[in-house]
């Protein structure tokens, strides 16, 4: 499916965001929120929507993808992204829409829905992440130690010995270093590590030593690091504590049983606090949308919510 229109929107603070429309302009409005933070919307994501039924909008968040300035961390916060979503909604004259998001996209979807519940007709979420420190510690340290110890050893072993006691802090500091000789290898290792953790059966289960000379710098680690250093600009347990605001919004959560980055207990906790949603657990899937059955289950969920919208 190709966009029938695309444009750059000025959202202020020096940021311009890329927004594309797929489906049909008179269709059921839907919004897709990509992960990362920093990864950008992909062609694959368009396939979640029915071109005959939906008016779907996909955009690249601040600093990501085709938005400008690229990789900018200035005025790049969760609250600013929520405001950007409202700019998009009002620009296109949409009253209410179905909001879809996975991983960090699920975080932003929940944060937006709690801020503007009257604008959300339904929520379709995948691989729930709620932006807490303990989730980050699990994803990058505790989980890999238990389930992918050889991968974790590679992640830690790429650091100088003096920095290995707290590898997460060391990588976050290196990603923020302005020197390319410092941040480039850190970004390459981080991206490889996260990619391997996102799949139930990764094609490459070890991390190759970084050369620091890749043609294209992986973008996600820099934006992701910025958000992690700032606790995703959320208060502790904010999204679960305020889940009562979601009670009037129907939803579906699609969750991989063996998701190491965003484990099932987080999706379960949200579903219990929310109450007005169905949790669909996929027993043979990890984190990525490309995992077995995930794309199909999320597409079905969107179709189901559209039928009831």
Say which CATH homologous superfamily of the largest domain is assigned: Alpha/Beta hydrolase fold, catalytic domain
The succession of helices and strands, N to C, reads: EEEHEHEHEHHHHHHEHEH
Structural class: alpha/beta
Helix content: 25-40%
Shape: globular
Task: Quickly count the helices.
Answer: 11
Stated plainly, the CATH topology of the largest domain is called Rossmann fold
Sequence of strands across the biggest β-sheet: 1-2-4-3-5-6-7-8
The average pLDDT value, as a whole number, equals 96
Beta-sheet strand percentage? 15-25%
- Based on the structure given, which CATH architecture of the largest domain is correct? 3-Layer(aba) Sandwich
Tally of strands: 8
Q: What is the CA-CA span between the terminal residues?
A: 23 Å
CATH class category of the largest domain: Alpha Beta
Major beta sheet, specifics? 8 strands, mixed
Evaluate the radius of gyration.
19 Å
Low-confidence runs: none
Report on this structure.
It catalyses: Release of N-terminal proline from a peptide. One of its GO terms (molecular function) is aminopeptidase activity. Keywords: Aminopeptidase, Cytoplasm, Hydrolase, Protease. The protein is α/β, with parallel strands linked by helices and 309 residues long. It folds into 2 domains: 5-132 and 234-307, Rossmann fold (3-Layer(aba) Sandwich); 133-231, no CATH class. Helices cover 39% and strands 18% of the residues. It contains 11 helices and 8 strands. The protein has an 8-stranded mixed sheet with strand order 1-2-4-3-5-6-7-8, with helices on both faces. Helix 2 (78-91) crosses helix 3 and helix 4 crosses helix 5. It is globular and about 55 Å long. The relative contact order is 0.14.
């Amino acid at each position: 499916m190709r966009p029938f229109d695309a444009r750059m929107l000025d959202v202020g603070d020096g940021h311009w965001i890329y927004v594309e429309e797929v489906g049909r302009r008179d269709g059921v409005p839907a919004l897709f929120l990509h992960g990362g933070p920093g990864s950008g919307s992909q062609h694959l994501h368009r396939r979640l929507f029915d071109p005959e039924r939906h008016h779907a909008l996909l955009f690249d968040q601040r600093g990501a993808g085709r938005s400008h300035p690229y990789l900018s961390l200035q005025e790049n916060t969760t609250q600013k992204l929520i405001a950007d979503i409202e700019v998009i909604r009002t620009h296109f004259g949409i009253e209410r829409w179905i909001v879809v998001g996975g991983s960090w996209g699920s975080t932003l979807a929940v944060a937006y829905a709690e801020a503007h519940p009257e604008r959300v007709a339904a929520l379709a979420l995948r691989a729930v992440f709620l932006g807490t420190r303990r989730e980050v510690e699990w994803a990058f340290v505790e989980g890999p130690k238990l389930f992918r110890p050889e991968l974790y050893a590679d992640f830690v072993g790429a650091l100088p010995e003096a920095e290995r006691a707290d590898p997460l802090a060391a990588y976050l500091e290196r990603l923020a270093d302005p020197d390319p000789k410092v941040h480039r290898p850190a970004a390459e290792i981080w991206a490889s590590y996260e990619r391997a953790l996102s799949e139930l059966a990764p094609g490459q289960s070890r991390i190759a030593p970084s050369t620091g000379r890749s043609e294209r710098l992986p973008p996600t680690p820099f934006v992701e690091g910025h958000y992690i250093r700032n606790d995703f600009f959320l208060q502790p347990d904010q999204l679960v504590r305020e889940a009562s605001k979601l009670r009037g919004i129907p939803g579906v959560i699609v969750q991989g049983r063996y998701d190491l980055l965003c484990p099932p207990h987080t999706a379960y906790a949200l579903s219990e606090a929310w109450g007005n949603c169905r949790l669909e657990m996929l027993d043979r899937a990890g984190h990525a949308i490309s995992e077995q059955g995930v794309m199909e289950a999320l597409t079905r969920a969107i179709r189901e919510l559209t039928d009831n919208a």
